[in-house]
Write a sequence for this structure.
C-alpha cells in the first residue's frame, strides 16, 4: 500500500474492459493493467501489488491458472476472480483457498470498488 492506497493489478484479455476497470478504480487505488495471464506475470515480477483482479475466461491461460501462479509466488497478494460463470461452474478449476473474493459478471462498479477496498 502506498500513501494509504492499494496497489491493484487488473487482468483481462479485453482492452476495453481493462480501461473501464482502470477508470472505475483509479479514485480509490493505484491501478496497473495487464492484457492476459502471461503479461500479468511480467508485471507482477516488476512491482509489488496488494490485490490482483483477474477475469477467468481469457485467451491463453485462464484466470484460475494465473491465480495459482500468484498464490504460489506472491501469497500475500489478495486474489479477486471475476467471471460470467458461477463459482460452482468454475470450481473444478479452482483449488480451495485460491480465491479470496469471487464476483459474478455482470457486476456493478460499486461491487468491484467495495471488493478491492475490503479484501
Amino acid at each position: 500500500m502506498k500513501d494509504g492506497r492499494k496497489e491493484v493489478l487488473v487482468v483481462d484479455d479485453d482492452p476495453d474492459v481493462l480501461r473501464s476497470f482502470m477508470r472505475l478504480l483509479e479514485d480509490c487505488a493505484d491501478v496497473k493493467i495487464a492484457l492476459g495471464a502471461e503479461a500479468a506475470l511480467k508485471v507482477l515480477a516488476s512491482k509489488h501489488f496488494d490485490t490482483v483482479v483477474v477475469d477467468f475466461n481469457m485467451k491463453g491461460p485462464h484466470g484460475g491458472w494465473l491465480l495459482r501462479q500468484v498464490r504460489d509466488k506472491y501469497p500475500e497478494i489478495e486474489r479477486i476472480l471475476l467471471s460470467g460463470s458461477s463459482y460452482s461452474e468454475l470450481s473444478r478449476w479452482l483449488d480451495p483457498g485460491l480465491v479470496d473474493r469471487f464476483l459474478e459478471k455482470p457486476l456493478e462498479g460499486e461491487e468491484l470498488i467495495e471488493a478491492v477496498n475490503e479484501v
